[in-house]
């Protein structure tokens, strides 16, 4: 039970935040407009505005996140922004072998980040939301 709470309340939100931070960093490189990083769903708890956009945390911060930016003009920019989030998670999964956490924590960090990175690279569209893989596939096929 403690492991489940740890994953739900600590590991998942930090992994989601880092995933979205990867998208945000790439969006800041490939777009000139402001970028918004939102973590969670529900009522807004806190918002931090800065010169390049904003970071917002919602009440159910462990549910998901999104990065909002204007689309870049070039196809490689769209692909770079879409792939940056999953690559951050796969990098974190690789780093778990370097840090000697308690074994159960290491396994949870490893598997959650692997799951988040790999499933986001699979192209799918569900309830109107597109995976990063879908965005990449669409950019490659349409060349827009």
Write the layout of secondary structure elements.
Blueprint: H1 2-30, E1 35-50, E2 53-68, H2 75-95, H3 103-121, E3 125-126, E4 129-130, H4 132-142
Antiparallel strand pairs: 1-2, 3-4
What does this entry look like structurally?
It is a single chain. The protein is of the alpha+beta class. The protein has one domain (2-32, 72-142). It is 56% helix and 25% strand. A two-stranded antiparallel sheet has the order 1-2. Strand 1 (35-50) and strand 2 form a beta hairpin. Helix 1 runs antiparallel to helix 2. The longest helix is centred in the first third of the chain and has 29 residues, at 2-30. It is globular, with a radius of gyration of 16 Å. It starts with a helix and ends with a helix.
């Amino acid at each position: 039970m403690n492991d489940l709470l740890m994953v739900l309340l600590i590991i998942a939100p930090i992994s989601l935040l880092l995933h979205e931070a990867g998208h945000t960093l790439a969006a800041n490189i490939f777009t000139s407009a402001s970028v918004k990083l939102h973590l969670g769903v529900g009522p807004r708890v806190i918002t931090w505005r800065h010169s390049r956009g904003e970071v917002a945390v919602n009440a159910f911060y462990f549910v998901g996140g999104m990065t909002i930016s204007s689309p870049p003009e070039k196809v490689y920019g769209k692909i770079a922004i879409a792939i940056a989030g999953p690559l951050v998670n796969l990098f974190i999964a690789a780093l778990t072998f370097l840090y000697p956490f308690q074994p159960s924590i290491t396994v949870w960090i490893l598997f959650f980040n692997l799951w988040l990175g790999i499933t986001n690279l699979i192209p799918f569209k569900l309830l109107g939301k597109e995976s990063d893989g879908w965005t990449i596939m669409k950019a490659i096929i349409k060349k827009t």
